[in-house]
Design a protein that fits this description.
Layout (H helix, E strand, L loop, with lengths): L5 E5 L4 H13 L2 E6 L13 E5 L5 H8 L4 E4 L11 H21 L4 E5 L28 H20 L3 E6 L1 E3 L8 H10 L5 E3 L2 E6 H14 L5 E4 L2 E4 H12 L6 E3 L1 H18 L7 H7 L8 H7 L6 H14 L8
Parallel strand pairs: 1-2, 1-4, 2-3, 4-5, 5-6, 6-10, 7-9, 8-12
Antiparallel strand pairs: 9-11
């Protein structure tokens, strides 16, 4: 497909974006990536990727990036669960998404794959796996990151309806695997648990998926997805206790011993937030973490499997891949 011209990709230096870049190159696409001047490029080192310096707040760089492209993959986002200034996150995740969609439409791009998140979706009252049809309202969404992804997704859907934007939306659950370079909040949790630095935890639930399966799902959405539709790209649902047990088994360490209560952690969260604001650090736990943990984040990928042919591998392979990569990078001591 290299004769189709370059594909414009945002977020290529990040975790999911780098996996999408590799998947595109393996399919024969040429990749043009938007990269911020200050972003480390380790995740795309050695890849045949053309780069355009800029960011989502720079409309001129977006226009240069999409020029001559037939397809756009929008992966980039400010993904943090703690932000002292939520408006900065909103500008990047919401206004930046809207600006890129407008630039792509003006350039005559034929198809866009927008990487949203299950953070933009609803949860079921009984804790059973949610899907693309589960009702959601912004009022019930906890935290600035989740609100930003909800607003961005709603903006894309409105542009599809009102302007004919040729966008397909994918909603990854919790990607795990190699090249989690920052790491993401989930990667940090896995790293800490694998290193035995997590004595206790607050029970909740997550859907774990291999980052390379998420990348493959993006390409399937490009090739088989329906414009205006959403597709959850997930894997397996785990209680947090079971997930920590799996991480410990793969890492050769002990799982956290104490299951903690929200009430016990509330003063800890208040103190951690205060220290974060005072010293400019990332708190280990916040009040929003505790609110989010009240509802298990279980999801179903049945629609993507039926409509796109999406086939996620066992989540244990994602955990094993993440641990192996962290060890290879010197971030995690080898098991005794």
């Amino acid at each position: 497909m290299s004769d189709l011209g370059p594909v414009f990709l945002t977020g290529a230096t990040g975790f999911v974006g780098a996996a999408v870049a590799r998947a595109l190159l393996a399919r024969g696409y040429r990749v043009r990536a938007l990269t911020r001047a200050q972003s480390p490029r380790d995740n795309i080192a050695g890849l045949a990727v053309e780069t355009v310096t800029g960011d989502l707040t720079n409309p001129e760089s977006l226009a240069r990036g999409v020029a001559g492209c037939r397809h756009v993959f929008h992966i980039a986002a400010d993904y943090r669960l703690w932000v002292p200034d939520p408006e900065t996150m909103m500008r990047i995740n919401v206004e930046g998404t809207r600006a890129l969609m407008s630039a792509a439409r003006a350039a005559g791009v034929q198809r866009i794959v927008y990487c949203s998140s299950v953070a933009a979706l609803g949860h079921t009252a009984d804790g059973s796996p949610a899907d693309e049809t589960t009702p959601v309202s912004e009022a019930e969404i906890v935290g600035p990151y989740k609100r930003s992804k909800y607003r961005a997704e709603q903006a894309v859907l409105a542009m599809v309806r009102e302007e004919g934007l040729p966008a397909v939306i994918v909603n990854p659950s919790t990607p795990v695997g190699p090249r989690d370079i920052k790491p993401t909040p989930t990667g940090r949790m896995i790293l800490d648990a694998a290193a035995g630095r997590m004595p206790g935890y607050l029970e909740t639930g997550l859907n774990i998926v291999h980052v390379e399966d998420v990348a493959e799902g993006h390409l399937l959405a490009l090739e088989r997805g329906v414009i205006g539709e959403r597709y959850i790209l997930g894997g397996e649902n785990f209680s947090l206790g079971d997930l920590f047990a799996l991480i410990a088994r793969r890492a050769g360490t002990r799982p956290p011993r104490f299951k903690l209560s929200e009430a016990a952690l509330w003063p800890v969260a208040l103190a951690a937030e205060g220290a974060a604001r005072l010293f400019g650090i990332t708190p280990l736990v916040t009040r929003e973490h505790l609110r989010m943990a009240r509802t298990p984040m279980y999801f179903s990928s049945a629609k993507a499997m039926a409509a796109l042919g999406y086939r996620p591998r066992p989540a244990e392979e994602a955990i094993a891949g993440a641990i192996a990569w962290f060890r290879a990078q010197g971030r995690l001591r080898a098991a005794a």
